[in-house]
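Let's practice the habit of predicting before peeking. Look at the sequence and jot down your guess about where helices and strands might fall. Then scroll down.
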Amino acid sequence: MKTKLSAFILLFLISVVNVNAQLDRSKQPEAGPEPTISLKTPMEFELKNGLKVLVVENHKLPRVSYSLNINNKPVINGAKAGVESLIGSMLGNGTTSIPKDEFNEEIDFLGASLNLGISGGYASSLSKYSERILELMADAAINPLLTEEEFKKEKEKLIEGLKTEAKSIDAISGRVGDALLYGAKHPYGEFVTEETINNVSFGDAVAYYEKHFNPNNAYLIIIGDVDFKTVKKQVKKYFKDWEQSVDVSSNVPAVTPNAQYTQINFVDLPNASQSSISIQNSVDFKMNDKDYHAALITNNILGGGGEGYLFKNLRETHGYTYGAYSRISANRYGAGSFSASAKVRNMVTDSAVVEALKEIKRIKTEPVDPQTLEDAKAKYIGNFIMGLENPQTVARYALNIRLNDLPEDFYATYIQKISEVTAEDVQRVANKYIKPENSRIVIVGKGSEVLENLEKTGIPIMYYDAYANQVEKPVFTKPLPEGLTAEAVINNYITAIGGADNLSKVNTLLVNSDVTIQGAPFKPKATVKQMAPNKSSMEIVVEGMGTLMKQVFDGETGYMEQQGQKRPMDEKALAAKKAEKGLFPELSMDPSSLKLESVMTIEGADVYKVKVEKEEMDSYRYYDAKTGLLVRTEETAEMQGMTMTTVTDFSDYKEVDGLKLPNTMTVTTGPQVLSFETTEVKINEGVSDADFK
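Done guessing? Here is the structure:
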């Protein structure tokens, strides 16, 4: 089966570049008066079951929002990590008295929204429907429709999601980074695996809900067009039967101590086309600390956005990345943290680390420029004021005051305290909370391309697997068997999948697949049709949305269709298509263009790395040393001004009419990951010339 779909996938993943227009002003406008923040003090009451209710009347618009927060301390689930995700995904989908479909249809009919999870929920509606939405929210919270059938569906979805993330640089970086920062046995550091999910039974999920989803430590915040006395009666009516559970309070364990010295914690991801870098250390930092506002501005200057030190250096000056950012996070349980992160090209991973550390040192040792400081404060104040337009933001502020032991005027004086931050404050706070000398630099990337230069930085390197277990330094090359050639590897592959005679009899191929796009809320279907020598078509369709993308080539001309827009292939794409011969590339490869480079290890198996030399850009193909099967391809292409590498992994080979074909294909281009699971294969049937018109 032809496996070269990278150009099509690359086009599918490229996003539209936004162009920002800049106004030319001859004179800077004078600053207006400092705005006055007036946040209404919530009216409060508490039910006998412990539910605390905060109400803010706001009659400007005929809308009401309800924010329910279950404020239990974080807990460790250990061998059953993921139970909270499973039960949380089942909440808000019907009640014991209202079926799922009827429940969701009524919410849609009322033009409202209602979402629940294991840590609470949110609902909003027009004020004339507010009582009904409150009633539905209470019913869904107190009497959720929990069925074993739905549990099994959610379990399958969660496991499928984990499989999709198995080779995701973002997922691995987040998992390993948190486990090393907090500790794998800390609530913030433990992670979900397929094994822990399979340990969870339906009874476990229900028991978790009964124990942890309770009014003991719950807050309901109501903001909008309501009357306090009326809404108080409504809340008592609908939430009074919500029963308390046993005390779920627990001691949150201390986080793992910071590293004794600056170190790189490296995870080898052979399919990575870029490296994920995260410089991190834990801090004891809370919202009620006197340094809180200064820390916000300090972080904004270092890595809060496009004007930050990190962004300007790594993107604008050096072009290493699309973005570089930092964060100082407060936590009332003593699990605060600092992190600076970026995803960069493999070849500049070491340089990006050096430059990021340089900018961190800069904010700790050099006074910030006065204009930079004023700009950072103005930006932060502007974002703060804009946020006040969102009821959920106001609700969060009201809750923060209660949960973080903040003064009642915390947000009323917010702008004043931001305005008072000085350059001395920035430098002092940077030295207090940003600790490069005790940081872990967590890097997930392609070790064979980045480690040699990382070692030259002089920073000690420790090695970890994708689940934060310390391992030995990976071995990237092994001695090649004496006398083995690239041509022999290719011939072994041809034999392994059915032999040249059988392959040459294949005139057409039709492959249907289910597609999973990491992070996408929908699941497309793909149909690939091919006809010898080089006709091809591929279409990706989403139910209810139609065709997302289509590519057709008839041997001479072709076109791309995306979101209803059809355009002919450019000359470069046409030339590449015309150069393809046959449905199985290995049958027509020129031995003089092949070079056997090395023996490597992929997923624990030895593979032969074969370089395919081309006029434009060389590509690589990896064949299992034991089975002879193709397990990976790696291709780099230039498209729309960008150079991107696409790594395609092949697995789960199955026999179809005497041929072995991969049943699973995972395509990684930058941060994007697509997985194709074959549902149907037809050989020499189901394809005609009309499919390529």
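How did you do? The chain has a mean pLDDT of 89.
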